[in-house]
Amino acid sequence: MKALVYHGPGKMAWEEKPTPTITKPTDAIVKILKTTICGTDLHIMKGDLPAVTNGRIIGHEGVGIVEEVGSAVSNYKKGDHVIISCITSCGKCEYCKRGMYSHCTDGGWILGNLIDGTQAEYVRIPYADNSLYPIPAGSDEEALVMLSDILPTGFECGVLNGKVQPGDTLAIVGAGPIGMAALLTAQFFTPSEIIVIDLDDNRLATAKKFGATHTINSSDGKAVEKVLALTNGKGVDTAIEAVGTPVTFGICEAIVAAGGHLANIGVHGKSVTLHMETLWSKNITLTTRLVDTITTPMLFKNVQSKKIEPKQLITHHFKLDEIVKAYDTFGNAAREKALKVILTA
Ligand SMILES: NC(=O)c1ccc[n+]([C@@H]2O[C@H](COP(=O)([O-])OP(=O)(O)OC[C@H]3O[C@@H](n4cnc5c(N)ncnc54)[C@H](O)[C@@H]3O)[C@@H](O)[C@H]2O)c1
Ligand SMILES: [Zn+2]
Ligand SMILES: [Zn+2]
């Protein structure tokens, strides 16, 4: 089969790889129908995630058709259409039983990281019963690709950890797909103000369409004073970090109000400065989280009923074998006016 293979920082190729086979009775082999590229894949390509080694097929999102199942898989059979979760979970270990699938002792975020991923014609999914979700006939499968990672990530790591409440003020730093997923799902809780901050005017205009009350282009370095001006000098009840850099984490630290929450989503490749000299007295909480995907069934219902429409995040379509071009588009999002790209097999 053909797959997108990582060959060290800045190097990737669409090349021939062996088609995966069942290695454990709990595995399934899924033929990819649609996949996409995540901001985390861009971090991998920059070398921010050294656990990803030369030769790895990357990608951790997608929908597909079950091609083959191991003898212990009971929820799925050949021909079933499925959503692939970015998180692999056995459903049985201590962490899975606590709903913390991200730290499954034999899973977590391994797909396209520690094992081969979804930017390929076929992928092996361990613990298929718990790591796949069924797609009913007639569903809009492109919209469902957004359930593999971005919607549960924005919602769990950003909105739930950030404890967004009705009437609250919220700032989201980073208007990529993850920040946008936080923006869409934060509105379940009706915050009164949602300020979205990014460097990309096109993404900020899109954020306005999706419900941001204010947008700030932070390229002038004045995001903090602008947020304080919008909030009577208090800052925001919740600051969601959806980029993963010292600068954007610093903005969140400076704009979180007393009693507020700083919910980090971004994958960080470098250490950040924790400003305890100002934060120690502010009664804030700081949270980090690797997405658990425990809210995927709830989000699925809201996508099916169109309460949220993540399909709006899709800006570009490519054929699966054009994936190197798709990386160039997603990696130059401001130039290309790109948000989420869909690759179709
Ligand atoms: N915690 C998790 O489980 C989890 C899961 C998935 C993704 N992530 C991470 O979430 C982050 C966002 O992912 P994405 O797919 O939206 O990525 P992305 O690269 O598409 O978006 C990042 C956005 O940040 C903006 N940005 C960069 N520097 C900025 C600055 N100084 N000020 C303001 N904005 C700035 C960019 O313009 C871009 O719009 C990434 O770090 C990704 O690795 C975390
Ligand atoms: Zn991701
Ligand atoms: Zn487990």
Structure description:
By secondary structure, the chain is α/β, with parallel strands linked by helices. The chain has 2 domains: 201 residues, Medium-chain alcohol dehydrogenases, catalytic domain (Quinone Oxidoreductase, Chain A, domain 1); 135 residues, 3-Layer(aba) Sandwich (Rossmann fold), CATH 3.40.50.720. Helix content is 28%, strand content 24%. It contains 13 helices and 16 strands. Strand 1 and strand 2 form a beta hairpin. It is globular. The termini are close together. The mean pLDDT is 97. The structure holds nicotinamide-adenine-dinucleotide and zinc ion (2 copies). The site of one zinc ion (ZN) has 10 residues, from helix 2. The site of nicotinamide-adenine-dinucleotide has 34 residues, from helix 1, helix 5, helix 6, strand 10 and helix 9.
Topology (elements, then pairings):
Layout: E1 2-6, E2 12-16, E3 28-35, H1 39-46, E4 56-57, E5 62-69, E6 81-84, H2 94-97, E7 122-125, H3 128-131, E8 132-134, H4 141-145, H5 150-160, E9 169-173, H6 177-186, E10 193-198, H7 201-209, E11 214-217, H8 223-230, E12 236-241, H9 246-255, E13 256-264, H10 276-279, E14 285-287, H11 296-304, E15 314-319, H12 323-331, H13 333-336, E16 340-344
Parallel strand pairs: 9-10, 9-12, 10-11, 12-13, 13-14, 15-16
Antiparallel strand pairs: 1-2, 1-4, 3-5, 3-7, 3-16, 5-6, 6-8
The structure holds nicotinamide-adenine-dinucleotide and zinc ion (2 copies).
